[in-house]
Design brief:
By secondary structure, this protein is an alpha/beta fold. The protein has 14 helices and 11 strands. An 8-stranded parallel sheet has the order 1-9-8-6-5-4-3-2. A 3-stranded antiparallel sheet has the order 7-11-10, covered by helices on one side. β2 (40-43), α3 and β3 (67-72) form a beta-alpha-beta unit. α3 (49-62) runs parallel beside α4 (78-87), α6 (121-130) packs across α7 and α8 packs across α14 (293-308). The longest helix has 16 residues, at 293-308.
């Protein structure tokens, strides 16, 4: 068994965390990853409070292993989600897209292990001061909400490791054991994988979106919407409209109006590949199959351990 600060903190077999992605990370995916020895996360960003409660309860029934909930702090109902998490005694919470000072102390008072997602060393230090048990250093290769600084994972991870004393989890552009090894060499204690789990059988993302992910090639994604909340998008008709609006220097309010409500649901959950918002990471360019989440964990771990023992050429 592999043991380090993260496996000990979360009580898991492998330092592999499945990101809590909107419209993809329900109880089926989270429980499958946890059952395989990693840490599964339910993505609460796309859920109403009653839906989150249902997913937590179903996850408890599907696994006796630790799992957590990802809470993007920029979405509505955050306070209700926190109440649900505490009431249901969820052991681990990953917060993102907001100030870790807001909820960390309250969660810690209820015995919850708290991790915050950051895009810079400055925010990593703030998370440490707020009392977080670990941070996720997420490079701008990642899908979903991203840092305006556009710092890559290869630069961000060692910088954050130098800036804090709490464990660092690397994220952004990681889908294989090779990439996991690179992140660990840079100082990370674990990796968080998102895009590859979007293309898993258990992910709640639409089959059409999963197929778009595995068919993506280099250059098919780009960081967009930096005036509001930066997000990496797969290029489609909606992306082209956003790009033109940004080229025309429209205001943040106009961009919010263009984004509207339900745009991400339309693309990732309902499968509208033309008009929907398709959030995915750059690493989609090397993902070429849809497979069970347990197999993903196994493949990543086996490749990592094999390469760990292999001398460099």
């Amino acid at each position: 068994m592999y043991t380090n600060k993260i496996t000990t903190l979360f009580k898991i077999d492998y330092p592999i965390i499945q990101a809590g992605m909107v419209w993809a990370s329900g109880w089926r995916l989270a429980s499958a990853v946890s059952n395989a020895g990693g840490l599964g996360l339910i993505g609460s960003g796309s859920m109403y409070p009653d839906v989150l409660k249902e997913h937590i309860q179903k996850c408890k029934a599907a696994t006796d292993k630790p799992f957590g909930v990802n809470v993007p702090l920029l979405y509505p109902d955050t306070d209700k989600h926190i109440q649900t998490i505490i009431a249901e005694k969820v052991p681990i919470v990953f917060t993102s897209a907001g100030n870790p000072n807001t909820w960390t102390s309250i969660l810690k008072q209820h015995g919850v292990t708290v991790v915050h997602v950051v895009s810079s060393s400055k925010f990593a230090q703030k998370a440490q001061v707020a009392g977080c048990d670990a941070v996720v250093a997420e490079g701008f290769e990642a899908g979903g909400h991203n840092g305006r600084e556009e710092t890559t994972t290869m630069v961000l991870v060692p910088a954050v490791c130098n800036a804090v004393t709490i464990p660092v989890i690397a994220a952004g552009g990681i889908a294989t054991g090779k990439q996991m090894l690179a992140a660990m060499v840079l100082g990370a204690e674990a990796v968080q994988i998102g895009s590859r789990f979007v293309a898993s059988e258990e992910a709640s993302s639409h089959p059409a979106f999963k197929n778009a992910v595995i068919n993506a090639t280099e250059g098919d994604t780009m960081l967009s919407l930096k005036k509001i909340t930066p997000v990496r998008l797969l290029k489609n008709d909606f992306f082209a409209i956003v790009q033109q609006a940004e080229a025309d220097c429209v205001s943040a309010d106009k961009l919010k109006e263009l984004l509207g409500k339900g745009r991400a649901k339309k693309g990732m959950f309902e499968g509208d590949l033309k008009n929907g918002e398709l959030e995915i990471g750059q690493v989609s360019a090397i993902i070429d199959k849809i497979q069970p989440a347990g197999d993903i964990v196994k493949e990543v771990w086996e490749e990592f351990t094999m390469l760990l023992q292999k001398p460099l050429k």
